[in-house]
Write a structure and sequence with these properties.
- The chain is built from four helices and no strands.
- By secondary structure, it is mostly helical.
- The longest helix has 16 residues.
Length: about 80
């Protein structure tokens, strides 16, 4: 049995929507994904990161293992800002 890639993609999207995920047509590349992550992170933590701070945070949490990255996000309780706070 063979499937077309488009069919598999549509089934995956339908499954994710059934799990209450939503399609974000505005996020189509790495730059918009990172901008969205930065906006959500700053809103949740009530802060404004400098570009250098965000780059350091991003580089600290990026991992080829998605489970390891999620664990770091949950457990990472300390981040020193450029101003020492």
């Amino acid at each position: 049995m063979t499937f077309k890639e488009a069919d598999i993609e549509h089934k995956l999207l339908a499954k994710l929507e059934a799990l209450k995920y939503s399609v974000r047509p505005d996020i189509r590349d790495k730059a918009t994904l990172e901008a969205n992550f930065r906006a959500k992170f700053e809103a949740l933590n009530h802060c404004q990161l400098t570009d250098a701070e965000f780059a350091r945070l991003r580089d600290d949490i990026i991992s080829a293992d998605v489970f390891q990255a999620a664990k770091r996000l949950r457990e990472y309780g300390y981040f020193q800002r450029e101003d020492g706070t």
